[in-house]
Amino acid sequence: MTDVRARAHHPESNGLDERVHRTMRQEMPIDHDTTFYQAQQVIVAYRTEYNAHRPHSALRYLCPREFYRGDPQAALAARADACRAAVSLTSGWAKHLFAFPKQTDGSSPTVTANRHSIPWNCWIDL
After folding, report:
1. From CA 23, how far away is CA 41, in angstroms rounded?
2. Kind and range of the H or E element at 116?
3. How many Cα atoms are found within 13 Å in the side-chain-facing hemisphere of 66?
4. Is residue 89 over pLDDT 80?
């Protein structure tokens, strides 16, 4: 192992370490008056959450524990099955509210709801 000296708070020389420190500062509630043991408990809880429960985009939105110690292909297949089941359950619930016109001119699709035309990208989840 080789010790490489880098300037502190200098992202060009140690960007990965600086990013980890930034994430830890943002997501862990540690104050200046926190004791060492309190900080240690917060860090252990955060590490467990980060590795066991939090999905990561680089791992196709699986948790690291599920990706590296489990069967990622089976987890992705189960997620796809659950998504298909959810879509089949909810696909017909709003047909009486919305009419989906066909777009032949290549314009942005709209939804006609109660005689109002709403662009699809303006919908919000309630």
Report:
1. 17
2. strand 116-119
3. 19
4. no
Q: CA-to-CA distance for 107 and 109, rounded, in angstroms?
A: 6
Rg (CA), the chain: 24
d(CA 27, CA 19): 12
Any idea which residue has 């990622």 for tokens? 72
| 8 Å CB contact between 42 and 28 | yes
Structure tokens of 30? 């540690």
CA–CA separation, 115 vs 7, rounded Å? Answer: 63
Across the chain, mean pLDDT equals 75
Model confidence at 24: pLDDT above 90 = no
Quick one: pLDDT band at residue 27, thresholds 50, 70, 90?
Answer: confident
Residue 101's pLDDT band (cuts 50, 70, 90): low
* Element housing 58 (H / E): none
Share of the chain above pLDDT 90, in %: 13
Task: Please list the alpha-helical segments (H only) found in the chain.
Answer: 11-27, 36-48, 64-69, 72-90
